[in-house]
């Protein structure tokens, strides 16, 4: 254990990124199946709820209220998620559709329409020392609004063969898995807050461990569904390159625009991570409802690839921001 820890500390690549890559490799070789997959699904639910309970114990109620009132931050993040991203998805159509084909381009466009991630966006914002209360409100609002906005955008911008329906359980999932544990943490803060303040490594471990677990479970699901055998290697590489460029462009835009609008460093970080991310956990079930037949696998494949790339890049960026903030505090 000590040798492995020392190797991670000396490695030029951040250990968090190595853990994510390790989760991808393990899922590809040993995906969770059967009862193990069902157990892990529940473990993810519990882990995410515990993570947001910890956030609730760590944040002063005044900070949470300030996050709720920061309407400029929330409108900016929602604009990136449901306006800028869809416009980018439409703009790249003439360039990428001849390369990847109709179905995979439909998947690229669909990933531009889904809401932001919740747990990883907030975890990265926390690691980077950004505006965590604002990120919690914005990411949760993105997912709740996305239950309605994503199907509407699909109807407006994409062609579907079946009727589009909206699953209200997504709202209950957000309320029960994200907001309720956070509120319970706020209530319990006077009793357990000092303990977690003295043991900050617990929250840090929860931040990063939850993301690694989500990566493994999501990638395992893709392996079980056989999605990687649907397309040839050339198409797979093309989708990966396009996804990489898309993530990089949005990371630049979501940083440059808020800086020009006069947002603070903490707010810029929240906007960058919440406004760039796209939710695999929300997008996959939405796709199964919105699209029928064998096209579902091809449509969700770009989202799965984009999801992995955004996690790796954002984990590196969040760690870098966190180190810069720590260095500035020490100096």
Q: Keyphrases for this structure?
A:
331 residues; mainly alpha
Describe what this molecule looks like in 3D.
- The chain is mainly alpha-helical.
- The chain is built from 15 helices and no strands.
- Helix 8 packs antiparallel against helix 9, helix 8 (119-127) packs antiparallel against helix 13 and helix 14 (280-290) packs antiparallel against helix 15.
- Residues 7-13 and 160-166 have low confidence and may be disordered.
- Keywords: Membrane, Transmembrane, Transmembrane helix.
Low-confidence stretches: 7-13, 160-166
Q: Which geometry do the CA atoms define?
A: globular
Q: What does the average pLDDT come to?
A: 80
Secondary-structure element string: HHHHHHHHHHHHHHH
Compute the CA-based radius of gyration. Answer: 19 Å
Kindly state the number of beta strands: 0
Number of helices: 15
- Outline the biggest β-sheet: none
Give the N-to-C terminal Cα separation.
33 Å
Record the SSE blueprint.
Elements: H1 2-10, H2 15-29, H3 34-58, H4 61-69, H5 71-91, H6 93-100, H7 102-111, H8 119-127, H9 132-157, H10 169-198, H11 200-225, H12 233-260, H13 265-276, H14 280-290, H15 295-330
């Amino acid at each position: 254990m000590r040798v492995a820890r020392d190797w991670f500390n000396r490695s030029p690549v951040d250990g968090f990124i190595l853990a994510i890559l390790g989760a991808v490799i393990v899922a590809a070789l040993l995906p969770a199946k059967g009862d193990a997959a069902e157990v892990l699904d529940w473990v993810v639910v519990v882990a995410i709820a515990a993570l947001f309970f910890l956030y609730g114990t760590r944040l002063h109620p005044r900070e949470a209220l300030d996050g709720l009132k920061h309407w400029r931050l929330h409108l900016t993040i929602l604009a990136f998620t449901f306006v800028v991203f869809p416009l980018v998805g439409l703009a790249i159509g003439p360039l990428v559709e001849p390369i990847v084909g109709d179905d995979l381009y439909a998947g690229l466009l669909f990933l531009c329409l889904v809401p932001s991630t919740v747990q990883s966006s907030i975890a990265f914002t926390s690691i980077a020392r950004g505006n965590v209360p604002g990120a919690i409100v914005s990411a949760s609002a993105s997912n709740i609004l996305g239950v309605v906005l994503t199907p509407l955008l699909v109807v407006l911008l994409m062609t579907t063969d079946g009727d589009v329906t909206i699953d209200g359980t997504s709202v209950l999932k957000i309320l029960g898995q994200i907001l309720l544990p956070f509120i319970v943490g706020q209530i319990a803060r006077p009793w357990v807050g000092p303990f977690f303040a003295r043991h900050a490594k617990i929250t840090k471990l929860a931040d990063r461990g939850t993301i690694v677990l989500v990566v493994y479970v999501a990638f395992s699901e893709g392996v079980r569904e056989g999605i990687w055998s649907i397309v040839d290697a050339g198409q797979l590489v093309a989708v990966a390159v396009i996804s990489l460029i898309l993530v990089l462009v949005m990371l630049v835009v979501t940083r440059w625009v808020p800086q020009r609008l006069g947002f603070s460093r903490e707010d810029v970080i929240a906007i960058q991570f919440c406004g760039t991310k796209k939710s695999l956990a929300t997008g996959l079930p939405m796709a199964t409802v919105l699209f029928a037949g064998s096209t579902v696998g091809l449509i969700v494949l770009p989202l799965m690839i984009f999801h992995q790339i955004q996690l790796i890049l954002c984990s590196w960026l969040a760690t870098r921001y966190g180190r810069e903030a720590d260095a500035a505090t020490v100096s």
